[in-house]
Amino acid sequence: MNAPTRRRRWLTISAATALAALFAIPATAAPGHPATHPRAFTAMATASDGGGDDGGEESDEIAEGADQFAEARTSPGTLLPGAYTAAWNQMTALPNTGGNWQHVTGLPYNSDDPRYRDYDSNSSGGAGLVTGRASALAADDDGYVYEGSAGGGVWRSSSGGGHWKPISDALPAQATGALALDGGGRLWLGTGESTTNADAYLGSGVYVLDRPHSGTFSQADRVGGGELDGTSIHTLRFAGDKVWASTTRGVWSHSTKDLHGPWKLEFAPNPAYLPGGSLATDPNAPYKNIANDVAVDPKDPSKVMLAVGWRSGDDYNGFYQKVGGSWTRVSSLGALPTDAGTVGNVTFARAKDGSRYYAIVQSPTALNTDPDSNLDGVYVSRSGDPFGSWQRIADTETLVASGSALTDPGYMPGVQAWYNEFLQVDPTNADHVYAGLEEVFETKDAGSSWSAVGPYWNFNFPCWSIDPSKQTGDCNPTTHADQHAVAVGSYHGKPYVYVGDDGGVYKRPLNGRTDADGHATDWVSTNDGTIDTLQYYSVGIGQDPAAHGVAVNGGLQDNGQSILRPGDKVMGSNFGGDGGDTLTDPANGCNIAQEYVYLAVNVTQNCAVNNGAWVDDPSKITSYSVAPPDNATAEARFTAPLTADTKDGNTWIAGGRHVWVQTHGYAIRSSSEWKNAFDLGAGHTATAVAAQGGKVYAAWCGPCNNQGFTRGLAVGNADGTGWHQVSLPATGADGTVPNRYLAGLAVDPANSSHVYLAVNGFSRQWTEGPGAGIGHVFESADGGTTWKDISANLPDVPSNAVMTLPNGGLLLATDLGVVYRAPHHSGWERVGSLPAVAVLQLKPGPDGRIYAATHGRGLFAIRLH
């Protein structure tokens, strides 16, 4: 096996994780099932990968992860508009505990850190300094660059990239779908992430900042009313004195002069499925009015073409134009396809002089049938007329031959075109175009030839080396994988192209240099540590064995596992891929268990410090694959629960279909060391686990989507005795545990029969589904036999994790921050003042502080008084 290919595909999985945290995806929306990924050592694949052989189904795996993230927040039904805005208003109205969160991860994060070149690391891949997913970009000619992150708000640089500052922290939504500068220099923000991926959140509408060089967004900057609350804004396009917004609920327009009137719904192909419509509560409603982009004729702003369609296919997919006052499907556009089976996700770009229009088209049919790619092609209209005639100038084979790193069957350019798409035309040259898929491609002759200027990692290329002294051998730095956003701007008179991807923002001169293979030699990361939009799923803290202080690590969306040790000026990445849950020994922070998808657990006892010597001598590997058996059979959730017994750190509990227990702690070296304590049942998968003194609680769901949603709770002992399913009535009546996703469990440190349960999703006020019920936190004093709703004044917001404190207090992690209930009190208080960012996990540190893993703003810590 070739060592350089060891994990080159890991970093795409959860990044594409489908339409979002605010509505569940039907079981039929994404084809296939969890798949696996090739490694350097075949012997390790069964233990680490998600079942079966690779088969080129990684895009399916991404979509599956997407389903699951959304399910937690919407099942058993669909979500009504306005839920998050209402919850944010409730959150900000709570009394505050006082105290300030300390930003732990506010320093550069080097994905190529040469200290951590163990087998399970992606170090030496070439992406360099990274941060969280960048979903939108805008730039001007005065050196100002604006980055819209997936979950951490909008950031501004006044120095051509770098030295970033957040400018949207006052908004109730921190997920970005679109950024655009209008002719007057105003910055338009469309909230709600536009990529149809699992950990994307919907937004609260569109906002305009009059003075973006110096101002910050406020709720008063919202355009129109609440018409776009609860949508994702895919694009904002200007035509005359009108702005067009393509959204998850159709295409809307608004005056750019009078910002106060309501938005006008221009076109929704299936209006009965919109809120208030006769089919609004149908499980498929969220996918019936998806609009991707708008193309405006540069010679006639009234002549507009709409690109509408769900990535997995629907009969409404296609292009539309207005004829006689009605929107009508376009039947002929030259080579540009118009049939519903071929038109999925579409992205347009127009030359500044109006002489060219370009488009990328993703194919639903290919998504369902082609394991290599679901890209239909890249097209050009050489007249600049969006109605053509169009010619195809690239397809998968064209891009494979351009210097791409994705040349293997089963994973070729465009395999995630439903998730990765951007287009940008050079403002000074209509034939010069950048296209983003998994990689960055460039053409300087309107598509006659292409170069993969930002290849997908360096591992496949002969120039690659793991040698720490060379960083990536003789290869040049590249961008992070999975492209989402692009902009062109100037700094000190020099034009740059900026690309946004799952690793943040990278730039190069607009007309940059390339090597003999067509790879750019001049990419620079702008992720200098002043911007932290890292999307953590988990956090771990332990005393550092080599220094005074604690080592802090955490699992990240598409950016592996970060580790920060005392005295570090730069965070390192000691595990690659998507970091799920994590365990860290409080007494020794270099004892770490990191979870990849579907319970692919890896363990290290030296912080995974390694100089890469394992490439020549496998015995020098210091990270070990110890996945529980449900990983090999794909019977665990994409991000599956993993915990240690609070009384015995060597007893670990992992949840898939089965409740797995191992008692060797960090000394575990084999998957065979896990023992099956209990079978939750066919079709059931664990959503949360907790253990204390040998007593184990395991929450589960199955089916987990809104079509037949079922959840439950099993209780038993770590030794496999005493297991039983707890009766949780599914009526959703007041005072009972609602029929929603059970996201978190915590046990009273003094009494293992005293347990708390955190329930995700929204109450029945917002969730249209059977048994949605009310309440988010429940308490049982008898081991789960009976429950009491203790939500009290808690905002109606998805709750992700609950944590007990030694003094009897409770902490709750929600999609909008952290709340606290003091001992012997019933009311909840807001902890500090985090922005409207999801907190997915809380852990106590050996330093007496509480650590929060936020999904968009990094790691924070606070000391409660």
Descriptors for this entry?
mainly beta; globular; 34% strand; five-stranded mixed β-sheet; disordered N terminus; single chain
Question: How does this model look, in words?
Answer:
With 865 residues, this protein is mainly beta. It contains 5 helices and 58 strands. The strands form 15 sheets. A 5-stranded mixed beta sheet has the order 3-34-33-32-31, with no helix packed on it. The chain has a 4-stranded antiparallel beta sheet with strand order 2-58-57-56, with no helix packed on it. The chain is globular and about 75 Å long. Residues 1-59 have low confidence and may be disordered.
**Individual helix count:** 5
Which class do the helix and strand fractions yield?
A: mainly beta
Uncertain parts: 1-59
Strand-residue proportion: 25-35%
| Order of neighbouring strands in the sheet with most strands | 3-34-33-32-31
Helix content range? under 10%
- How big is the Rg? 25 Å
Which shape, going by the Cα principal axes?
globular
List how many beta strands DSSP finds: 58
Topology of this structure?
Elements: H1 42-48, H2 58-74, E1 78-79, H3 83-93, E2 102-103, E3 109-110, E4 134-139, E5 145-149, E6 154-157, E7 165-166, E8 176-181, E9 187-191, E10 206-209, E11 233-239, E12 242-247, E13 250-255, E14 264-267, E15 291-297, E16 300-308, E17 318-323, E18 326-329, E19 346-350, E20 357-362, H4 364-369, E21 375-381, E22 390-394, H5 396-400, E23 422-425, E24 433-436, E25 440-443, E26 451-454, E27 483-491, E28 494-501, E29 504-509, E30 524-525, E31 540-543, E32 550-555, E33 561-564, E34 571-575, E35 582-585, E36 588-596, E37 600-604, E38 623-625, E39 642-645, E40 648-655, E41 658-662, E42 675-679, E43 685-692, E44 695-701, E45 711-717, E46 724-726, E47 742-748, E48 751-759, E49 767-768, E50 777-780, E51 788-789, E52 799-804, E53 810-814, E54 817-821, E55 829-830, E56 839-844, E57 850-854, E58 859-862
